[in-house]
From TrEMBL:
Pfam families: SDR. GO terms for molecular function: oxidoreductase activity. Belongs to the short-chain dehydrogenases/reductases (SDR) family. InterPro entries: NAD(P)-bd_dom_sf, SDR_DHRS6-like, SDR_fam, SDR_PhqE-like. The keyword NADP applies. Keywords: NADP, Oxidoreductase. It comes from Bombardia bombarda. The keyword NADP applies. This is Uncharacterized protein.
Length: 239
């Protein structure tokens, strides 16, 4: 079904943190197509500006705004997120928050993982989602028409070899979303589990490593008996 069919987000304000590229850019576009006004955020001002310009050209009747905010600093992330929400709120009440921000994956198989690597990789994937929810709870109207959506991955439930730590982050996000849905009710809290999506996330992976990843995905499909791995993103998003 096309997102435009029922305009379910007509007039709503959607804040997409990580909306300047990849899955978040797709979410931003789908939200605008569904009638929403969209605020896009990520760390790079140039990427935010480009994403806003592209979406504003596609949907001139919507209010499309960008706010660059780097969430990578553990020391300032609470204040950074509060400033982001406050600024976004200036464009009208925020109804929905989508968190798709992530830095490049630096983790490999277990024998190459160090404690410092786990701490660093967990910041955007485990710590920031908690602070996003904590901040959103102060800004979203306390209503079932408000929502927070986090992003996990199919790796949480169908890990392939060498992905243990990332699977742990993804599984933790699913549990976090379930518990937050209880804590923050009536605000809805969701988590999506995309499969492999060809985005900038894999940009830093050299050709050989990337080919090995694709091979492991195919092997995972055979082991798990899944059909049509190319369609994973469509089948798993929104589950
Ligand atoms: N792609 C896949 O195959 C796949 C599969 C399963 C799950 N996922 C998950 O889906 C989510 C989105 O992934 P994606 O593939 O769309 O990645 P992506 O294309 O690399 O997009 C990541 C977004 O996060 C932003 N970001 C990165 N560092 C940031 C920071 N320090 N502060 C604020 N924003 C920051 C990026 O913009 P800036 O560079 O401007 O900061 C970008 O907008 C991630 O949680 C990822 O783990 C992806």
């Amino acid at each position: 079904m096309s997102p435009t069919t029922y305009r379910k987000l007509q007039g709503a304000h959607v804040l997409v943190i990580g909306g300047s590229s990849g899955i978040g850019a797709g979410v931003s576009e789908a939200a605008a197509a569904s009638g929403a006004n969209v605020t896009i955020s990520s760390s790079s001002q140039a990427k935010v500006d480009a994403a806003v310009a592209r979406l504003a050209a596609l949907y001139p009747s919507r209010t499309i705004r960008g706010i660059a905010t780097d969430l990578s600093s553990p020391a300032t992330v609470e204040a950074d997120l509060d400033a982001l929400f406050r600024s976004a709120q200036g464009q009208g009440t925020i109804n929905h928050v989508v968190y798709t921000a992530a830095d490049a994956l630096s983790l490999g198989s277990l024998d190459g993982v160090s404690v410092d690597m786990v701490h660093a990789a967990s910041h955007m994937r485990m710590v920031v989602p908690i602070v996003v929810a904590k901040t959103a709870a102060r800004y979203l109207p306390g209503s079932h028409t408000s929502s927070i959506t986090l992003t996990s991955g199919t790796v949480a439930e169908r890990p392939t070899k060498g992905w243990a730590v990332v699977a742990y982050f993804g599984g933790g996000l699913i549990s976090l979303a379930r518990a937050l849905a209880v804590d923050l009710a009536p605000v809805r809290v969701n988590v999506v589990r995309p499969g492999y999506v060809d985005t900038g996330l894999w940009g830093g992976w050299a050709g050989r490593r990337r080919r090995r990843l694709w091979a492991s995905l195919r092997a995972g499909r055979r082991r798990g008996g899944l059909e049509g791995w190319r369609t994973w993103p469509r089948r798993t998003c929104g589950s």
